[in-house]
Design a protein that fits this description.
Blueprint (H helix, E strand, L loop, with lengths): L5 H22 L3 H9 L11 H20 L1
Helix pairs in contact: 1-3
Amino acid sequence: GFTPNAFYMMSRACGRSLLFNSVLILLLVLRNTITLLRKFGFATILPLDNNIYLHKVVGVIIFIVVVLIIC
């Protein structure tokens, strides 16, 4: 069979991480989503009151993943 090399697997992992973080960054800025997450009790896990700070942190994570993909 086909055995993928390490570069292929790393690019797939970084791509999946980039997709997850992109969805997360959009969800954490929408007001209705924040209200829904607070209603289900995710406020104990995520700092939903500081959603702009969390948005910036996820943005930095996306930047780091993109740098990993390029290098």
